[in-house]
Amino acid sequence: MIEIYGSSNCAYCTKAKELAESYNMRYTYIDVLEGNNSEIFMSKFPDAKTVPQITWHGRHIGGYTEFAKEIEETRRG
């Protein structure tokens, strides 16, 4: 399961979603600006300064660049 924590005004958040979609990967998108999602975001990623923050099978990957790298390495593996 992939979880992408982002916001609607974030270009890299959009790119992360598009990247997952381009590989037909199932993901959940959590907008940190809606409801109490900002509290959840801060508790999951207390040191994060930016969005997106992405988890894959419960493991924190990082942001868009790290996500793209993870996909590349997984596909090569």
Tell me the number of helical segments per DSSP (H or I, 4 or more residues long).
3
Percent strand: 15-25%
Succession of helices and strands: EHEHEEH
Overall 3D geometry?
Answer: globular
- Sheet with the most strands: spatial strand order: 2-1-3-4
Overall mean pLDDT stands at 96
Number of strands: 4
Descriptive account of the structure:
The chain has a 4-stranded mixed sheet, sandwiched between helices. The chain is of the alpha+beta class and 77 residues long. It starts with a strand and ends with a helix. Strand 3 and strand 4 form a beta hairpin. The chain is 43% helix and 23% strand. The mean pLDDT is 96. It has 3 helices and 4 strands, in the order E-H-E-H-E-E-H.
Task: Give the arrangement of secondary structure elements.
Elements: E1 2-6, H1 11-22, E2 27-31, H2 37-44, E3 53-56, E4 59-62, H3 64-76
Keywords:
single chain, 77 residues, alpha+beta, 4-stranded mixed sheet, 3 helices, 4 strands, 43% helix, globular
Explain briefly what this protein structure is.
With 77 residues, the chain is of the alpha+beta class.
